[in-house]
Amino acid sequence: MTLRRRKTEASGMASEAEVDHQVILAHLGKGNASRTSLWNLIFVVEVAALLGLWEMISGPLGVMNPKFLPPPSAIFDELWRMLPIVGERPITEDIVFSLKNFGYGYVLAAVVGTTLGLVIGTTKSGELLLGPLAYYAYAVPRSALAPVIILIWGLGAESKVVIIFLLAVFPVLITTMEGGAQVDRTLVDAGRVFGATRLQTMRKVILPDLFPYVLIGLRIAVIRGYIGVLIGELMGSFKGLGTILKRSSYNFEMAQSFAVVVILIVLSSLTMLLVSFMKTKLAPWHQEEDLLRSR
């Protein structure tokens, strides 16, 4: 009876501890949400003030020539004309072309960068054979290779995907390598002592510890990928957002040029949000760690 009572008490204490843990996380989550809301409010106010100042400088005050620095109102008018379906001259085909190339190049960079980073960062042979090559290749100015890539693969989508891949793969590769080197070897050894297989060790120990580094690389790769979109299409392409940007700049249609830049900012921001959403779904335990760390 005494043993059964102790087990019951231990079970009750564990349940209470779990409830307390959930209450603490809920409390921290509310505080973090309030801080995020305040940060977003400050950001909106700052952007509104900047746009208002910009409108005055390029408009009533006449400090800048609106032909070279159009006011935000002219840029938003141009954006409305370029909107799919409702706009006067929609650029749906160009947006789809750029997004499709970005998607192919980014996914390929994420898969290759993560895989090679795992091999190099978590194995001695991978670090010895591929580590120096990865670091030296990272130092190569890949943007300068764009003309050569276009000469080899032509003006179609293939050259754009290659350029995006080369710009986006190294942030994922390098951060994954560094994350693999920072994995707690004590936990790996403990898993092996308890009979964990190599696959179980990778899935239960290494990947959870490595995921924040991979996420950092994926976020950086988003920006590098969209830079690759612009470089590839500015260098040579028949369609795409970069082509519109180049054509409008040549024709001094600066409102359209700024409108394309706004579209690229929106697309990259949405992609970053998608990467953050992946974090909440694939690694929810890091949400709890972030909440505890933020306090």
Structural category? mainly alpha
The number of helical runs is 11
Following the backbone from N to C, one meets helices and strands in this order, namely HHHHHHHHHHH
Radius of gyration: 25 Å
| CATH architecture group name of the domain at 85-286 | Orthogonal Bundle
Topology, number of strands: 0
- Please name the fourth-level CATH homologous superfamily of the domain at 85-286: MetI-like
Segments where pLDDT lies below 50 for 5+ residues? 5-28, 291-295
Pfam families: BPD_transp_1
Protein name: ABC transmembrane type-1 domain-containing protein
Domain ABC transmembrane type-1: 95-275
Keywords: Cell membrane, Membrane, Transmembrane, Transmembrane helix, Transport
Brief characterization of the structure:
The chain crosses the membrane at residues 38-57, 103-121, 133-155, 161-177, 210-235, 255-277. This protein has 295 residues and is an all-alpha fold. The chain is built from eleven helices and no strands.
Give an overview in words.
It is found in: Cell membrane. Keywords: Cell membrane, Membrane, Transmembrane, Transmembrane helix, Transport. The protein is globular. The protein has helices at 2-58, 72-82, 92-122, 124-138, 146-153, 157-181, 185-193, 198-235, 241-250, 254-282, 285-294. The chain is mainly α and 295 residues long. The protein has a domain at 85-286: MetI-like fold, CATH 1.10.3720.10.
